[in-house]
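Hi all, a correction to my earlier message: I attached the wrong file for DUF1542 domain-containing protein. Here's the right sequence:
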Amino acid sequence: MEGALLVLLLLVVAAIGAGVYATAKASNKRRAASLDDAKADARRVIERLGGQVFALSGTDNASKQALADASERYTAASSQIDQAATARQAELAKESAMEGLYYVRAARIAMDMDPGPELESLSGQRTAGTVTEDRRVQFEGREIEASPVPSQRTPNYYPGGRVAGRPVPAGWYSEPWWKPALVAGAWGMGSVLLFSAMFSGMSGVGYDAQAFENGYGDGYGDGLAAGQDGGGFDGGGDTGGGWDTGGGDWGGGDFGGDFGGF
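and the right structure:
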């Protein structure tokens, strides 16, 4: 009797083990398929970006700078997809490439060319808003400008989104004032003052200075947008963006340089 119970127990244990193994194997296959799909999707966008970067040459400061930024995003995305070990990392590589396509689009606009088809929205882009008027402010001994259009005075484009947890509206700027935070991963003390001076009262910008200071994420913006009608918010979800460096994910490359950090 005891022998029969022992055999039965062994059979139950073996069945459980086989079930666990089969479940784990199926899960691994799903993860592998998801990674392959994400990589294929990312490579499609990266190849599209590469074709644009290599085919275009800037004709003025604005278009040249935009194409230089597009080239940086192409290099970063190519490196990211080569190292991607998870579907999330592949998605971030695609996000980097999409950012590059926005820079290409900006360069084409600066050169009075057809900008091409509309692009997928970037993470945090819609809730960050867009520059809708010319602004010129004095900040720490230098003059910084923002404009909805490129010019000799505003040759630096940003497609809009979050940098180090804060929103940066899409637009053209006299200098890339967001890059110190992009490199350091945090904003300096003066960033709130600059944001307030630059965007206070500007329609189309998705955050006020207090929200910028508190670092509200896109979820906050989305919730607020749901209760407003045309108040400068346009909904839009957030999947973490191309700058997410937490939990083993990585995004935008190291742009380096000293832009007069705040």
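Sorry for the mix-up. The beta strands are 135-139, 142-147, 156-158, 161-163, 166-168, 171-173.
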